[in-house]
Amino acid sequence: MATKTKEQELFDLIDIEDFKDRVVCGYNDGSAELGLAADLSVARSIIAPGTAALRDFSYIGPDAPVLDNANCVGCMECVTECPDTAILGKVVPADEYERRLAAFDTDAEREQFAGHFNRTRKFYDAVEKKGGKPGMFGIFIDPTKCKGCAECVEVCGEHNALHMEVKDDRGLEWFKTGWRHFLELPDTPAEYINERVLTDMMLSSEALSTFTGGAGSCMGCGEVSALRMMLAATAFVHGKDNIGLVAATGCNTVYASTYPYNPYTVPWMNSLFENAATTAAGVRLRWDQMGWGEKKIWTLGGDGGMIDIGFQALSRLLASGMDVNVMILDTQVYSNTGGQTSTASFFGQEAKLSAHGKARGGKVERRKEAGQIAMVHPAGYVAPTTAAHPNHLHPA
């Protein structure tokens, strides 16, 4: 019998299904604080993957997005930008769609199901023209994950395919029924996912499954949008079983580990504020020793953890030439206090607390731009980008 590694012995301490049934359900029904026993997983600060999927935020926001299906063009921007994995798309072959539609008993059921779908040029007309099987494109909202931030409505913009409605006007059960339709549908067939149209990766169950939603982040958190997009792209190319995350202390480590809720289904760990980069280097070395050279490691942190107090660790990592990806998150995107100017971003960037002009004196300061500093090191690829522009972020 093969000898187990220390890592395997550690994770044998936690039974994932037991953790979900005993711990997560205990927190969900309110009994955990009264009688949940301490155990080895708690002592080791281990949280089972994907437990945030069991979290219910349907009571958080009074409003939820509703699809105006006739206006939907299948651009996927709402799915891409949602910070809570609460709005998802799916393509169903037209014949399968018709079969399911005919199976409903009442006109009301058929109307609700059909209201999630539209015949788009992208997935129906263009596919049919090429001789393929046309597909119906659908948008679905998970009411247990949606916090009502309306980011999806914002990015939908001129298409006007989404609007916010008070949940009580339709009734929460109406939203839950729509989500059940999504769960009962098969995965989007691969022939509808165009690898050259990178937003289409959000149709891939492999890419989407890396972040469940249910994180304790603020409503409309811009940081999570960036992390979801990064995770989806990495999983789409390399597979979700080939990803590891090392995070500097910050918001992402708080909302992703509000015990016992973990939205990640990929392995991740939290390091000290200033040494996430060197911790990632240690993980990279250990993985290489184990023959896991094909796995991708991301280290995450804000400008404080990476460029201010953590710069020496980041510089050493960049100089090493190791295969470690680094994501530096803009402080004004994720900071608990909000509105601060990122010291790592470019000099001309506006921030709420540093607007400068004739009307407001504001604050003027030089910045040590992360992109310029990183390019001084050998053999690195640097891409200052923004989650607001997925056609730039995904290729980068």
Description:
- The chain is of the alpha/beta class and 396 residues long.
- Strand 6 (243-248), helix 14 and strand 7 form a beta-alpha-beta unit.
- Helix 15 runs parallel beside helix 17 (311-320).
- The model has no long low-confidence stretch (mean pLDDT 88).
- It has helices at residues 6-11, 16-29, 32-35, 40-43, 77-81, 94-102, 107-114, 121-129, 151-156, 167-170, 172-184, 205-208, 222-238, 251-255, 276-289, 303-308, 311-320, 331-334, 370-376, 390-393; strands at 63-67, 87-93, 117-118, 135-141, 162-166, 243-248, 268-271, 296-302, 325-329.
- The two termini are 44 Å apart.
- The protein is globular and about 65 Å long.
- 39% of the residues lie in helices and 12% in strands.
- It is built from 20 helices and 9 strands.
- The strands form 3 sheets. A 4-stranded parallel beta sheet has the order 7-6-8-9, sandwiched between helices. Strands 2-4-3 form a 3-stranded antiparallel beta sheet.
Summarize, please.
This protein is an alpha/beta fold and 396 residues long. Helix content is 39%, strand content 12%. The strands form 3 sheets. The protein has a 4-stranded parallel beta sheet with strand order 7-6-8-9, with helices on both faces.
DSSP summary: helix tally: 20
Shape: globular
Helix share bin: 25-40%
Topology as a string of helices (H) and strands (E): HHHHEHEHHEHEHEHHHHEHEHEHHEHHH
- Oligomer state equals single chain
Low-confidence stretches: none
The spatial strand order of the largest sheet comes to 7-6-8-9
Q: What is the overall pLDDT average?
A: 88
N-end to C-end Cα span: 44 Å
Biggest sheet architecture: 4 strands, parallel
Please give the number of β-strands. Answer: 9
- How much strand? 5-15%
Q: Structural class, from secondary structure content?
A: alpha/beta
Question: Radius of gyration, rounded?
Answer: 22 Å
